[in-house]
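Dear Dr. L.,

I hope this message finds you well. Following up on our conversation about the binding site, I have prepared a predicted three-dimensional model of the protein together with manganese (II) ion. For your records, I am including the exact sequence and ligand specification that went into the calculation, followed by the structure tokens. Please feel free to forward this to your student if that is useful.
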Amino acid sequence: MPIRDKIYFASDFHLGNSNYHAHTERELRIVRWLDMVKEDAAELYLVGDIFDFWFEYKTVVPKGYIRFLGKLAEFADLGVKLTFFKGNHDMWMFGYLTEELGADIISDELIIERGGKRFYIHHGDGLGPGDRKYKFLKKFFRSPVCQWLFERLHPNLGVGIANAWSKRSRISNGKKTDRVMHQHEWLAEYSRDVLTKEHFDYLIFGHRHMAMDVKLSDTSRYINLGEWVYTSSYAVFDGKDVKLLAFERDLELMDFTAALTVGH
Ligand SMILES: [Mn+2]
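The resulting structure of the complex is given below.
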């Protein structure tokens, strides 16, 4: 029996995004990663935007992802604890993955303590100052009224609209401008804010599509998990420390430390 003592974190697979071939390659890459993780994982945290679009109708779920979901079923059967976070692309996860996989579904942040270390985990959307338009949309999209209305649309139409909407988002438009735009990494700023009220050793997010490991103090780090469309980054906690790694390629780490120290 292998010893299961590691905790893995990954986010932003955006499964379903892009053409079928690229999507299949990505799903197979994720499955290879899960096969590795399976060996020693006690827990797996999928920190949002795992699906490029997800909606659970009363009797229907979106097509696809068979190999991915099958692998997660294996995890569930092995007793590995699964936790999904709602992202801005897949906020409409309700009871299906809990029923099928015993997974916990987290709507906002989750605070856990493991090996004496404190973790703050959140997908990362709608945090910090500004972006009022998105915060309003998030509230609307998550409202029972909006969900009820969407469920009234025929899936061919509803999912079609959702996919068109999703294509307009950052993931399909490339990420280069985003890298240049952010002199200050706002999730690091948000993390600093959280730390003024409460101590955390690790503040872990996704959403930004840039792998980052930023030291905020001697005992706290902001970690961004990156994404799996262009790269394949993930984090692992071995009971003592968190490492940010890449699967089957070199890790492309964004270094915002210099920018962060300016003016603070
Ligand atoms: Mn996101």
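In brief: Residues 172-181, 258-264 have pLDDT under 50 and may be disordered.

With kind regards,
A. P.
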